[in-house]
Amino acid sequence: MKRGAERKLLIAGSIWNMFTALITIFGYSIWFKKTGVKGLEETTLDHVFATTTVIDHVTKLIVMFGLLIFVGAIINFIISRKMRDGEIQPKILIWIACWGVFLLFTMDIIGFVLYLIAFVLYLAKNKAIKLSEREQKRKRLFSDVQTF
Fold this sequence. Notes:
- With 148 residues, this protein is mainly α.
- It has helices at residues 4-39, 45-82, 90-105, 109-147.
- The relative contact order is 0.15.
């Protein structure tokens, strides 16, 4: 069985993840830092130091989250290229499931839907591959019995 649909969905999901990661790293983190600094203009000096530290830490956390999504996108792209046709690869199935659940927890609904569809298609084709292999074994066994 060809795995073209799963490949395309994983590539689409990785492109989506790269897009959201870049927006998070370069858009959201910069916006958050600017907004936090603007909020400090009307506070006391003691409060400014504490709030600046918190803003810096949260900005670093936002950038780390964006980098995590970016690394996940690269991993998904590599997996889509390494996926073999007509073969069951359980580690890929586990990765797609874990990444989809992670995206659900982060409320990335579009990414979750892409990986959910890829997961379901991968499971369905795994079932078809198993049935095909079972049928081939049965035919070989039956042909061996007829030769006696």
